[in-house]
UniProtKB/TrEMBL annotation:
Keyword line: Membrane, Transmembrane, Transmembrane helix
Keyword Transmembrane helix in annotation: yes
Protein name: Na+/H+ antiporter subunit G
Organism classification: Bacteria, Pseudomonadati, Pseudomonadota, Gammaproteobacteria, Pseudomonadales
Residue spans crossing the bilayer: 6-30, 42-61, 73-91
Coiled coil location: none
Organism: Pseudomonas jilinensis
Keyword Transmembrane included in the entry's annotation: yes
PANTHER family per the UniProt record, alphabetical: ANTIPORTER SUBUNIT MNHG2-RELATED (PTHR34703)
Length: 112
C-alpha cells in the first residue's frame, strides 16, 4: 500500500473544510428568517467552501504532472472577486426596495 504524501493530506483537508463551509452556508440560506440574514450564507460560508474545494482540486491536479491548471486558478480568482460585489449589489437593491427586516426577540426559535 502506498504511503500518503503531505500534498494528499492537504488536498483532503481542503476538500473536507470546503464541504463543511458549503454545508454551513447552505443551512444558513435555508434556516435564517429574512433576506438580509440569508445573504450571509451564500456570500460568506459558501464562497469559502467552494474556494477551498477549487483550491484543493488545483493542488491535486497540479501535482499529478498536468501542470498548473489555469482554469481552476481563474475560477478561484473570479469567485473571490465577484461574491462580495454581488452581495453588496443585492443588499443595496433590497434597501432601495425597502425590504422589511424580521424583528426578533431573544429566545425565539429560528424556524418561525
Amino acid at each position: 500500500m502506498l504511503e500518503a504524501t503531505w500534498i494528499e493530506w492537504l488536498v483532503a483537508a481542503l476538500i473536507l473544510l470546503g464541504s463543511l463551509f458549503a454545508l454551513i452556508g447552505s443551512i444558513g440560506l435555508w434556516k435564517l428568517p429574512d433576506f438580509f440574514m440569508r445573504l450571509h450564507g451564500p456570500t460568506k460560508a459558501t464562497t469559502l467552501g467552494v474556494g477551498a474545494l477549487v483550491i484543493g482540486s488545483l493542488l491535486y491536479f497540479s501535482t499529478r504532472g498536468e501542470g498548473l491548471s489555469l482554469h481552476e486558478l481563474l475560477i478561484t480568482i473570479f469567485l473571490f472577486m465577484t461574491a462580495p460585489v454581488s452581495a453588496h449589489m443585492l443588499a443595496k437593491a433590497a434597501m432601495h426596495e425597502k425590504l422589511k427586516r424580521v424583528e426578533r426577540t431573544r429566545g425565539e426559535p429560528w424556524d418561525q
